[in-house]
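Re: folding output
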Amino acid sequence: MLRGIYTSAVGMTTQMNRMDVLSNNIANANTNGFKRDTVVTRSFSDELMLRINDRTDFAGSRVIGNIRPGVFVDDIFVDFSTGPMEITHGTLDLAISGRGFFVVQDADRNGNTIERFTRDGSLTLNADGVLMTNSGQRILGELGEITLPAGYVTVTDLGEIYVDGEFIDTLRIVNFEDKHTLRKHGHNLFNTTDQSVMIDFEGTIVQGALERSNVNSVREMVEMITVMRAYEANQRMITIQDGILSSAVNEIARR
């Protein structure tokens, strides 16, 4: 009986984690270049369940039999599918058509300079004319930081930046053999891992456009309803099993 309560409790915890992920997706439905997350679950090992604190009868068979105490969150999977492209006509609005990431300069927790990666091409200039993300990270080109003088900015499909016809730098855009080796950092940025292998960018840059989030708000809301119903079902099962356990204990106590 206690295992049934544990199974329902694990199910409730899993649904809470799923709800957190869905809430974050919906909160970023209007964030440029955001990639939605999905929860990957796994069942508890049958064999491990059978071997922990289980007695055997005289024939050597297991008393409790084959039972799984629910599912656990195994991983958070990032959906890297491309979001819809929106034409903005903004001079510093850049969208990546194809696979690839802008390279930005950021700082780690110790203040050391580190490279991170983003699909968000909504860029701006600081007071010194340095090209930056809206979160404050500096966009990197092939020559390093990109500083733009006053004038009309043109960005070619290869990422070459011109101001009044004068070449300034080429945006540094990279790709990865397996994007799923990247890990979200926050501020719409990604970190590499030891398994990340960088390859050349083969797409194009579209000036005056932005890649929107790949979150479908309607789908996320429908999934939230499903999660809520699953949570409530597990909650009801705990109440039922607790009542049965209470009755069993009281009946045994009388005898």
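--- second protein (sequence, then structure) ---
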Amino acid sequence: MEKKKIVVGMSGGVDSSVTAWLLKQQGYEVLGVTMRHFSGMDEIEREAALAAEQLGISWEAADVRDAFSEQVMEEFAREYAMGRTPNPCVICNRKIKWEALLRYAAGRGADRIATGHYARICSLPNGRLSIANASSATKDQTYALYRLTQEQLKHTEMPLGEYSKEEVRQMARQAGLSVAQKKDSQEICFIPDHDYAAFIRRFAGEEKAGSALLPGNFVDREGTVLGRHKGIIHYTIGQRKGLNLAMGHPVFVTGIRPDTQEVVIGENEDLFSTKLLCGRINLMAEERLEGERRLLGRIRYGHKGTMCRVREAGEGLWECEFEEPVRAVTAGQSAVFYEDGHIFGGGIIEGRG
């Protein structure tokens, strides 16, 4: 009997390598592929190729640089230039990673793909698929996966959703993988030095970034000038460090006004709100939002979630009202809503409601 083929996206880290090992243990013919998102990924590719060799599976790199540049890097630079704070992983997962893996699989006679995310795919009573929280809450990665489509989920395996990070490292040691103790990556992959402003200046240039690169005024919410800033691309909502304002006490970025190049400064309490609006909606658990729904809402990757009520607020918009105030609602980030431990849907935050 011929083994079923499955394509595993391999990033050169412990999670994707153990994913490949687990699936091989289950009897699959595993094909490893590493996405070449941008130039300078030689070390990642070497580590992925070595892991594949240690596992005894085939491996190759797939070049997605053009699509990644157009759909992820350009979007990131454009959003920052508009005073927003995007999450590029959310866009990459749906438009680049999953699409490329599925194309690669189809070309090699494989019907399934797999990734090393800590999440689980669940079937709902209404016949739809959703993404459920990982069993290990500390590593749950569902937030960045909420834009995946039903068709993408139908062909996907996420075996790490049942394990803790330490269990995964133990399996890596058991499999003899040299990446067993490799540290997790925390930064945006194409900005490893965390200098977003330098990336936008280099990638978008003066013409695309425009006034976002230029110095402007720090102001309070009444418009009183408090000082000068380096350009709005250097700031995000909730930021405290790097403001260089002598106010006598800690102050925070509470707003960004790209039209006037102003960065609004306020107190910590000014950052809390109970409402937000989000657009570019992706529904996962249902085909549509009917009436008002009580859900758990997360407004950033590290947010554990706050109960809220979600309703439509016009064409392609949802309004969310939280039961307790949440800190630093940030345009460009994602609001992801959960029901009974799985994703209901979500969208891109447009601002406070």
